[in-house]
Amino acid sequence: MTGVRFDGPACPVPLTDTERVQLGHGSGGKMSARLIRDHFVPLLGNEYLAQQGDGAVLPAGERGELVVSTDSFVVSPLEFPGGNIGALAVHGTVNDVAMMGATPLFITAGFILEEGLPLDVLDRVVATMAAAARAAGVQMVAGDTKVVERGKADGMYINTTGLGMRDPGFRPGPERARPGDVILVSGPLARHGMAIMAVREGLSFETTITSDTACLVPLVAQLRQDIGDHVAALRDPTRGGMASALNEIAQASKVGMELDESAIPVPPDAYAACEMLGLDPLYVANEGVLTAIVRPEHADAALAAMRKHAVGAEARIVGRVVAEHPGYVVLKTLVGGTRIVDMLPGDQLPRIC
Amino acid sequence: MTGVRFDGPACPVPLTDTERVQLGHGSGGKMSARLIRDHFVPLLGNEYLAQQGDGAVLPAGERGELVVSTDSFVVSPLEFPGGNIGALAVHGTVNDVAMMGATPLFITAGFILEEGLPLDVLDRVVATMAAAARAAGVQMVAGDTKVVERGKADGMYINTTGLGMRDPGFRPGPERARPGDVILVSGPLARHGMAIMAVREGLSFETTITSDTACLVPLVAQLRQDIGDHVAALRDPTRGGMASALNEIAQASKVGMELDESAIPVPPDAYAACEMLGLDPLYVANEGVLTAIVRPEHADAALAAMRKHAVGAEARIVGRVVAEHPGYVVLKTLVGGTRIVDMLPGDQLPRIC
């Protein structure tokens, strides 16, 4: 109060950025982690949320464990080379359930539709979801539709929640990596994120970059069958990319990681798009790739297991788990140097999934 | 083509309304039903979605049945007298699970946040969700947060998915009503919808109309304990109100229904607001009321069971199931006439939940 006016501050006190949600809070990086830590965990935290996996494991009697995972999809544009929001909504959630070691069985879908959305777009999205669910072996068991006014939902948003059963003998978890373990990826990185960015930025290349959106359930089933619980950890590096996925495992397991840049597969067109936009492929979202941390004596078998499937045909060993620098991921670069691959503070690419 | 131009129609063909999503598609009335029937069921339909209940019943071994329900919440404004979007997001979903006869155990939450949302609003919403989940006896087991740009999510949207277990000995279902059954409501109608509309329209009354948002789990537990499977059907009349809930049961059970207008409880302030806005309280959303269809010899016990709880203190018998006019709900009006209470074609009140 200045005394000049009596009906409020003479000069409005500006709200600082720390008082409002920012795009970076949706990045999957450090800002996301802080939002969860400061604004959700204190009020909602319990033993389940504390698991911090891609989903939660619930007791389900003698027959195994029930795994549940939820995800909302807000990708822009709704349709892109290689897929659409419906493909992501099914693959994203069944893959999260699979990364917990479970077999996805059921999925629910909540649609928020914007007034004016062309029904043929909705039909294509729903058809894609139906096909993706069939291919993944899940049944869509419950749904909900809401409609909001023009301009309030950018076409449509979709939430899916997946349920699966886990065999107690197969428990990959981010806290189970240990020094000596081998780090594998099932396929080339950065395709999904760069497919979206190429559309948004109007980039064109000799070939169109297509999203890698795919179901990873058969890959996980093969790993379970061939090497079982010698799989220490599984993650699909979506938001925040490979860098964030490995950082989370390194921190949960209190181990270091060393990646070999020369071994990391990035398709030339996605690499070129990253270069143009100044992005690092290790941070770009994938929607059809998994990273597996496996015991060293089973690394070759894991590689062979993944290569039995088209989606894992280009699987590679990309690094190893070490005792040094626990909690940090280090990259041995092409030119022979090393650099720390930290989690991003905020946003690299908004609305990628 | 007119022949005047060769690069397309001389006069652009306008898209008709039937080619785009309209607000009425979110109403819970006939347009919603048509959207589901024409654009979701043909592609996604299976034995679970065919159940058409408030959720789906899944096999879960010998220990009972797993019930799952999903719902997205897009209410505007986010905070209103009597609650906020977080209260609705928990109550809406646990109530849907309870209406299937199950005990809700777990809930997931997917947040879509708009850039610029004040974090103190988020904190109040999350605190309300935490308290509501505790009171309902459910644990929040998985969550997800996405952020979209300013102007793209009207503050925030929340999806919740609820899981519960159902005792095979208690199976209320919309197809189980039969002539002679008695129709009860657990409390006064139209409070939630009119609380929202009073805020939006700037209506003021002697007292503030408050939402009835409440957890109905204890009421269902009491009904199960006191009269068990003599409860034929349960519904919480949210979107589309009591009229839509009863029409759905009448159609699923192929029975008629007779309501007695003089017995239907509507608080004076909500009634006055309905009169002002030209709305029928039977179509206005409730968020803390259930309607139960019970066998006639157990109607008094059902009434007594509901009245044991504060949220059911004003429970009433409001009508009966009849063999005549199957699929139709008929109201005996205050002046002694009768009128058909049909489902609304489209929208009465958008974005009420």
Give the strand content of chain A.
15-25%
The average pLDDT of chain A is: 90
- Element order of chain A: H for helix, E for strand: HEEEEHEHEEEHHEHEHEHEEE
pLDDT < 50 stretches of chain A: 1-15
| Major sheet size, sense and barrel closure of chain A | 7 strands, mixed
- Please list the strands of the largest sheet of chain A in the order they lie side by side: 9-11-8-12-10-13-14
**Most extensive contact:** A-B, 77 and 76 residues
Report the top-level CATH class of the largest domain in chain A: Alpha Beta
What is the structural class of chain A?
alpha+beta
Summary?
Chain A has 353 residues and is of the alpha+beta class. The first copy, chain A, has helices spanning 30-44, 85-99, 119-136, 191-201, 217-227, 241-253, 268-277, 299-307, and strands at residues 56-59, 65-73, 79-80, 83-84, 103-114, 139-148, 156-166, 182-185, 231-235, 256-260, 291-294, 316-322, 329-332, 338-340.
